[in-house]
Amino acid sequence: MTEELNKNTDEFEVVVPEANREEMPKAEFKEQPAYLVNFANFYIAKYNQNDLEIMGSFDKKGNILDINTYLLNNINFSRKELVKHVLNVHDYNFKSLLDEVVAKSNIDPESFATFEDWDKWYEAERNQIPGSLS
Question: Looking at the record's lineage, which domain of life comes first (predicted)?
Answer without folding.
Answer: Bacteria
